Structure formats: C-alpha cells, structure tokens
Amino acid sequence: MTDAAELRSLTRELLARRPPATTDRTDFLTARFDAGLAWVHYPAGLGGLGAPRSLQAVVDAELAAAGAPDNDPRRIGIGLGMAAPTILRYGTQEQKERFLRPLWVGEEVWCQLFSEPGAGSDLAALGTRAVRDGDSVSGDWIVNGQKVWTSSAHVARWAILIARTDPDLPKHQGISYFLCDMTDPGVEVRPLRQITGEAEFNEVFLTDVRIPDAHRLGGIGEGWKVAQTTLMNERVSIGGARLPRGGGMIGTVARTWRERPELRTHELRQRLLTLWVEAEVARLTAERLRQQLVAGQPGPEGSGMKLAFARLNQEISGLEVELLGEEGLLYSDWTMRRPELVDFTGRDAGYRYLRSKGNSIEGGTSEVLLNIVAERVLGLPSEPRNDKDVAWKDLAR
Hints:
Blueprint: H1 4-17, H2 25-34, H3 56-65, H4 77-90, H5 93-105, E1 110-113, E2 129-132, E3 141-147, E4 158-164, E5 175-181, E6 187-192, E7 201-211, E8 216-217, H6 223-239, H7 248-259, H8 266-293, H9 301-324, H10 349-355, H11 366-377
Parallel strand pairs: 1-4
Antiparallel strand pairs: 2-3, 3-7, 4-5, 5-8, 6-7
Helix pairs in contact: 1-3, 2-5, 4-5, 4-6, 6-9, 7-9, 8-9, 9-10, 9-11
C-alpha cells in the first residue's frame, strides 16, 4: 500500500467501527493493531500494512483529530523503540506473533538487560552466563549474572537480554540474545535511587533463571549482531523523538522567559537564542534521520543525534536554573518513588536539571558515542585494541 487516501479511508473505517468515545481503550488499540494501523510500515498481520513509514503521519493525524487514545509511548518506549524492531528483524514468525501485539498495545512492558557493573561502556565484556541445561540442542538455558541501570524493570513483564554462551570465544563472538520473562523464578529487581530522589532505574539479579531456547532471538553466538539493531534503534528513539517547533525543554525555558520579564538579562538572552537555534537544528536533523529510516535500518547517525540530545538537555536545564535564580535552587519533592516513565516537561526546573545529568550516560555514554561517530560516520581509524581476538575467559578483569 502506497496511497495516503486509502490509508485515510481505512483509519476512518476503524473509527466508525470503534468510536473512541464509547470504546474501551485497550479494545480500540487492539483493533487498531489488527487493522494494520499501529505501525503501517510493518508487515500485514503484525500491526502494519507494508506501507511506507512516512504514511504513518496520515494515520496519526486522523486518529488525533478524532480524539483516539494512544498507547502511552513514553511508558512503553523500550518495547516500541528497541524490542519491537529487533524482534521484527531477527524473530521467528511465532515470536513476532506472540510478542508484537501486546507490546504495542501496552499490555506487556519491556525492559533492557544489557549493562552490567563490570561491563558498562565496554558492553561486549559482559559476564552474565547462559548455559545449556544438559546436552539437548533445543533445551532450556540457565542464566546467572547481574544487570544494572535497568529502566522500568520494576514494571516490566519481558526483557531483552544478552548473555555469554561461549567464554572460549572472543568477547564479541560468544554472546547470545534472549527474551526473558521477568516474572520467572530467580529474577530479582532492586531499586537504584538516583540524584532526583526517585528510582526509575534498577539493578537486576539473575539466579538460575530458566529461559527456553524458543525465546532465543537470532543464532547462538550472534547476540552482538542482534544487539546492534537494538542499540541503533535505542539511540534514534532517545535522540530522534518527534517534537513540534519550540517543543521539549527549550520550549519550557522560552515560556518562562516570555512570562517572567523581570528575570531577563542580556547574557541570558544570548544563551537562550543560541540554544534555541541549536535545538531547532537538532529537531530538523532528527526529522531528516527519521526520513532516512524509510529506506531501512537506522545507522550510526543516530549516535550523533543522541549525543546532541544529551548535551542540549544539560545546557538548557542549566540555563533554566540560572534564569530562575533563587527559585531554581528549590526542589519540590525528594520522595522515593519508582515511576513508570520519565517526565521532563511535567516537573520543576530542579528535577530537569538533575535528571538531565543521566542523559550523557543512558543509551550509550557520550564518550562511547563519540568513538562511534568518529569511526562509523567520519571514517576515522579505530583506536588500537589488543583484546579483539582474545578469548573472553582470558581477558583481565
């Protein structure tokens, strides 16, 4: 399907069959998925119609005008932005049919079990082990290890997990990729309280967790390749979110500037104008990146967008605190919570300032992303490394 008029007609048929005002939210979202209007570029039967990605805007506009509910994408962002494209690319037909619909509808929240205490920036050095139970080639895997910085683990039903299945191979080669049921015995989630006072992150301990081989994604030992799809999509979902002109954090600061003229100074004005221009450039670049996605999988350019997102968030939130003066030093609530999502624009300036410090860590540290941009975008030579051909078990730790 390539015709916008036909997509618009299908959307209106859905609205006629399931009027948003009188239809249960979950029932409406399920019907939307089954009609192929969830993500139109996905295959038919998996929430899409095989249409160009650019036509999603046609569907979204019709639904928004009718007051139709969305699937609360901020709450299920890991599932939508990371798990779904990875399952679509590497999953079996059975895996796609089992996981994609409840993921998109929001019935099942996902989290990401990648980072470890001893393998953060060097993710390929991870030590969580997955060992076959017996000699069966199709039997379960027994997983032991620890993961950290896991957003939404306290509310997640499923996790995308990478674990070492062959310690005799170099670190990038002996990894496999799994779908882990977070309700299984042996999965323990503990909160990590952050500088904001909340615990949206967690550490996860895996003790003899049994994962069926049917929940392995991709081939044995191909986990690093599969994980690259996840990571590239993660950086696009973090740094390339669609925003209106003047949206996001720069819009919040600009609104304060307009409403509070007594706070203005010449120096702050110059900084605000500079950041406004940079935020608009980043927004337009993100739009161009999304258009490039129509042609295929995201590339390393998403790392550049995520870099810009982190720097801008931190600089804009710093400007806001300075603009507010003494008010900017206030922090409304240190109550320990375990939120389901991050709400930058719905909180006060102090929260935005503190929470933005994590932007240069989560989704790949800025230092690692600079290397990716240098090597994969600019074509610069990679740094010398002496561990690429050494068995993981022989690496110094």
